[in-house]
Amino acid sequence: MNRIITSELRALVLSCSLAMLTTGMAQAVDLGDAAPSFSPPDAHSIPNNDFGKMVLKGQAIFLNTPQNASQFVGNQLNCVSCHMDAGRRENASPLWAAYVLYPAYRSKNGHVNTLAERLQGCFRYSMNGKMPPPDDQTIVALESYMYWLAQGAPTGVKLKGQGFKRLAEPAQKPDYVRGEQVYAQNCALCHGADGAGQHVGERMVFPALWGDGSYNWGAGMHSIPTAAAFIKANMPLGKGNSLTDQQAWDVAYYMNAHERPQDPRFNGSVEETQKKYHDAKSDLYGQTINGVMLGAHSTPSGGRLRAKAQ
Ligand code: HEC
Ligand code: HEC
């Protein structure tokens, strides 16, 4: 009896350490539910010196991105539109948890990305803009803000609340019609029936969820599992976790079943771009919904920047 337990235990310990070893080799150590918690420092404690000035600049870019990094932003979203609470909130991909995970291998581009390259991607896709050079002050400022938020955190460890908390697979396949109902009841008030958000003059009050003013087809939020995870934890604003998982999946599907700016990696053919970058089953790019092939009527990526350049 004792011996069986001992050998079972040994097998368990072995498989655990093996799992840690393999995750450790591939990416950061992931302790699952045992992931360590972390609290970033108080916003008022940013030091009053030259480094602090760069941190504040990064924070300002993060909160008001089109105003403070206008040459790289093609839409009116802010970084904080998705990384809520100034990039501090758990399960809204907080910056302090991201900082300690780079450099990291990303399957999206098939190589090890520095933090600077990761940030460049945010501008290219989520902000539908263009990449700042890696040593540009925009990147230096954002990295300084992240570094400051992460002070005291262990590196190479996935912290509690990192990224967006993935939901279990839905009981029913995500559905457009059910999603449309969830949207009308819980989202349209702020984001508009047409998903275009609300603006006062140039200023965005509620961000666009689809259409020309939103993130483009290459952005992480266009993935339905990612959007469902974000929405479940964070929307409707101030009432996170009030939707059921199924409602979050359905409304994520509905949101991402609409047209948005083209994937900047578009090579002239929706079919080929789909094959190369959008072959996941849950990815609606290139699929025909309500008689419209998504991606076939997208405006070119770059938004406002492109319009300006012409
Ligand atoms: C439309 C929503 C959206 C906007 C706007 C946005 N992001 Fe993100 N961001 C995401 C999503 C979704 C991911 C996760 C993508 C993935 O890997 O699947 C992400 C990932 C990241 C990561 C990596 C997080 C980690 O834990 O590895 C960083 C850093 C980041 N974003 C910074 C920024 C910055 C800086 C801006 C503004 C310039 C920005 N983001 C704008 C949605 C957004
Ligand atoms: C009370 C107003 C309000 C309601 C209702 C609301 N949102 Fe939001 N939503 C916001 C605001 C404001 C932000 C930006 C957060 C920030 O800047 O701190 C946001 C951000 C988002 C984002 C990320 C930014 C973008 O444009 O892609 C998504 C996705 C989103 N909401 C989806 C939804 C969905 C789906 C619902 C309904 C289930 C919903 N929201 C309900 C106000 C609202």
Structural features, described:
This protein has about 300 residues and is mainly alpha-helical. The protein has 2 domains: about 45-150, Cytochrome Bc1 Complex, Chain D, domain 2, CATH 1.10.760.10; about 175-310, Orthogonal Bundle (Cytochrome Bc1 Complex, Chain D, domain 2). It has 13 helices and 6 strands. The strands form 3 sheets. A two-stranded antiparallel sheet has the order 1-2. Strands 3-4 form a two-stranded antiparallel ribbon. It has a two-stranded antiparallel ribbon with strand order 5-6. A hairpin with a 2-residue loop joins β3 and β4. It is globular, with a radius of gyration of 21 Å. The N and C termini lie far apart (about 80 Å). The structure holds heme C (2 copies).
Secondary structure layout:
Blueprint: H1 2-26, H2 50-63, H3 65-68, H4 84-87, H5 95-99, E1 104-106, E2 111-113, H6 115-126, H7 137-149, H8 176-186, H9 188-191, E3 198-200, E4 203-206, H10 224-234, H11 245-256, H12 270-277, E5 288-289, E6 292-293, H13 303-309
Antiparallel strand pairs: 1-2, 3-4, 5-6
Helix pairs in contact: 2-7, 6-7, 8-11, 10-11
The site of one heme C has 26 residues, from helix 9, helix 10 and helix 11.
Summarize the structure in short.
This protein is mainly alpha-helical. It is 42% helix and 5% strand.
